[in-house]
Specification:
Layout: E1 8-12, E2 15-19, H1 29-39, H2 42-53, H3 57-60, H4 63-90, H5 100-103, H6 106-122, E3 140-143, H7 149-156, E4 176-179, E5 182-185, H8 187-197, H9 206-227, E6 233-234, H10 235-247, H11 252-266, H12 272-279
Parallel strand pairs: 1-6, 3-5
Antiparallel strand pairs: 1-2, 4-5
Helix pairs in contact: 2-8, 4-9, 4-11, 8-9
The chain binds zinc ion.
């Protein structure tokens, strides 16, 4: 069931801010389908058309939401494999006031950890909040867009129509972005996922691994928002620390790579989207 739209409190490098609620329409299946279909980047739009052409007219209408459902399913499966590991690593979350450059090194993060342990021993409220697995899946997922989750979340979805004039693109090198209930997967990752899920391409392909890494990464962003006792951390400093925490902090980063490899080696989702849609004919 769609969650009740609510305002979100978050922190922009230390400054407390409030984002007004997203209109309830965008939490419904119809709304999510519309966002996906209207915000698709051209290469993804062309791929969806080619996929639709392979289906009977009766099944075509289900394609968008089946693809989104599969993305969410993979996020949940990857997160379930990593959950105990993530729960432990959450105890090392970056402190809001800690310097990002200092945090981004084995010595600096050890200092942050020591300080954090002291706080957590004396004050239970500094321990990460418990978050149930399913909650890390973002309610609004857009697969294959160049628009940024931030411009969607903050500006474009407060009414029942998309406010086109306030949309912005994702940053050049981003694979995806997440912002308070909204995940926007970029065109490159979405294309790789569809090659795997539809064409049955081998998971040895680098693009597919990167796309799976992105799926997992986006669930971690949401987890950080929900679990951080200091609230969701945004802004250049908060973002840099969160990325270091999830991508380079060892041994967590290597464990995550192993989980992704094991999952992909199982090949469960290879050609799965096509089978699901074709199978229902
Ligand atoms: Zn990120």
């Amino acid at each position: 069931m769609a969650p009740v739209p609510r305002a979100h409190v978050y922190f922009w490098d230390g400054e407390r801010r409030v984002a007004p609620p997203i209109h309830r329409r965008w939490y419904t299946e119809r709304g999510i389908r519309e966002l996906n279909e209207r915000l698709r980047a051209p290469p993804v739009a062309l791929r969806f058309r080619a996929m639709a052409a392979d289906l009977s007219p009766r099944r075509r209408g289900a394609l968008t939401l089946e693809a989104v459902a599969l993305a969410r399913e993979v996020m949940a499966a990857l997160f379930a494999r990593a959950e105990p590991l993530v729960a432990r690593h959450l105890r090392n979350y970056p402190l809001p006031e800690f310097d990002p450059d200092r945090f981004a090194s084995p010595l600096g993060r050890a200092a942050s950890e020591r300080y954090l342990r002291l706080l957590q021993e004396h004050e239970p409220r500094f321990r990460p909040k418990a978050v149930r697995g399913r909650r890390v899946i973002p309610p609004i997922v857009i697969l294959g867009t160049s628009r940024s989750a931030e411009s969607l979340r903050m500006h474009a979805l407060s009414g029942p129509r998309i406010a086109w004039t306030v949309l912005e693109n994702q940053r050049g090198s981003a694979h995806a972005d997440y912002c308070l209930d909204v995940t926007a997967f970029g065109a490159e990752d979405a294309t790789a996922l569809l090659e795997y899920w539809w064409e049955g391409r081998e998971p040895g392909d680098r693009g597919i691994q990167e796309a799976y890494d992105t799926l997992f990464h986006e669930s971690l962003h949401r987890l950080c928002d929900l679990a951080n006792p200091f609230g969701p951390q945004y802004g250049p400093k908060g973002g840099a620390k969160e990325h270091y925490w999830m991508e380079e902090y060892e041994p967590f980063a290597s464990h995550v790579e192993r989980i992704l490899v094991e999952h992909l080696a199982g090949g469960r989702e290879k050609g799965l989207l096509r089978r699901r849609l074709a199978g229902k004919d």
